[in-house]
Amino acid sequence: MSATPANMRRLGRLRVLQALSEVGEVSRGDLLQLTGLSRATISSLVADLAREGLVREQSSVASRLGRPPLVVSLVPSAGYAFGLDLGHDHARLILSDLAGTPIWDDTADVDVDSSAEDTVAAAAELVQAALEDTEIERASVLGLGVGIACPVDRRTGMPRADGIMPAWAGTKPAEMLTGRTGLRTLVVNDANACVVAERRYGVARHCDDVVYLRLSAGIGAGVVCDGRMLLGHDGLVGELGHISVDPRGEVCRCGNRGCLETIASPAAIARLLSRGWGRTVSHTELMALVRDGDRGAVRAVEDAGEAVGRTLAMTVMTLNPTLVVVGGELAAAGNVLFDPIHRALRRNSLSDLHGELRVIDSALGDSASARGAAALVLAEAPNLLTIDKV
Ligand SMILES: [Zn+2]
User: Fold this and answer.
1) Which residue among 41, 74, 107 closes a domain?
2) How many whole angstroms from 258 Cα to the centroid of ligand 1?
């Protein structure tokens, strides 16, 4: 980009929007520090952005003595982003404002594993319902982020779904969703979306080395190392659910044997109890039994926690995080799950690595994937709100 006045102004605008997007509300003085722009340029850019309705300047509520300082922030209603979580049996859609606050949230039961077409149709209906309920215009929505419960190829955005979500093999979900909704769409693995959400809104704020482990119908991890998301050559970093932890265990849907997912997903634990007790135990009943202290259910979840801990020990020794966030339905088992995870981690990793390591419950629960997917769209907001504006 050549240094014409228009280009310099575009760059300045981008810096101001990026700073506000990352930090929230700041004083003009802090904005000078964060952007490296001059006081006069900041004044002029903030005035322009305020005229367009993108930023506002108001009194900080923090001060009780004297006149409270003015702080600049994005106007939350200046733009929106959808976040869609596609689990194995549901589609959950959240609409976030520019500040990342969820303003609409609903879930459709849909057999995601079996039909990409039906899932995309259900998601498009949710988008339509959200726009009608909130009376927000489609043009105000910056895009649709999707967290999907299977590996996603970072180059093509296509699910690497062989065996895991067979109905999605060869599909292009971003194109399908854009075709049905008219929204710019980006697709990532759900655990990657979750780690983004926990860093932005949850328990991993200010943490640059974090592993998010999702223990749901599928098991996967999102990894941030030195402040950057690790993706790997194909984008498949963190497929911990398909690490073999029992060579003589069940054959997994991925085709390998004894994967962590065949032992520690809520569905696998419910299957184990169903076989042992000769009757069907659902995931919901499993969690209720654990809450009630049922010996068999507690034992099964403890054994799963031990397998999770051993797998995490390998991960911790490979990546040296300071925080592991455990999410997904099984995290609701609380200490029944977390105590054996801690024990197995201590027994199977170097003490230097687990000394300061914290393993904690997700703050955002089931909303993490959708909120993180929306956050990925919002992270691009400064660019989207700068293109063709100057
Ligand atoms: Zn597997």
Assistant:
1) 74
2) 7
pLDDT tens-digit series, residues 154-213: 888 898 867 778 889 899 999 999 999 999 999 999 999 999 999 999 999 989 999 999
User: How many other CB atoms are found less than 10 A from the CB of residue 339?
Assistant: 14
User: In the chain, how many domains are there?
Assistant: 3
Does 353 or 315 have the greater pLDDT score?
315
Q: Report CA(216)–ligand 1 centroid distance (Å).
A: 14
- For the segment 89-136, what is each residue's pLDDT rounded down to a tens digit? 899 999 999 999 999 999 999 999 889 999 999 999 999 999 999 999
Q: Give the span between the Cα atoms of 382 and 39, in whole angstroms.
A: 20
CATH of the domain at 347: 3.30.420.40
Instruction: Please give the mean pLDDT across all residues of the chain.
Output: 92
- Per-residue confidence at 390, pLDDT binned at 50, 70, 90? very low
Is the residue at 200 inside a domain?
no
Residue with tokens 């006045």: 5
Using a CB cutoff of 5 Å, list residues around ligand 1, an ion: 242, 252, 254, 256, 259
Helices within the chain (DSSP H only): 5-23, 28-35, 39-51, 116-134, 173-181, 190-201, 261-264, 266-277, 283-291, 295-319, 335-348, 351-354, 368-378, 381-384
160 Cα: distance to centroid of ligand 1 (angstroms): 13
pLDDT at 157 (0 to 100): 86
Kindly state whether residue 390 falls inside one of the protein's structural domains: no
Pairing between strand 210-215 and 219-225? antiparallel
- Which letter, b or e, does each residue of 188-217 get, where b requires 16 or more Cβ atoms within 10 Å of its Cβ? bbbbbbbbbbbbbbbbbeebebbbbbbbbb
DSSP output for 214-255 = EESSSEEEEEEETTEE---SSS-TT-GGGSBS-TTSPBPTTS
Please compute the mean of the pLDDT values over residues 278-286 and round it to a whole number: 95
Q: How far is the CA of 241 from the centre of ligand 1 (A)?
A: 6
Instruction: Kindly give the interhelix angle for 266-277 and 295-319, rounded to the nearest 10 degrees.
Output: 150
User: What does the pLDDT read at residue 85?
Assistant: 97
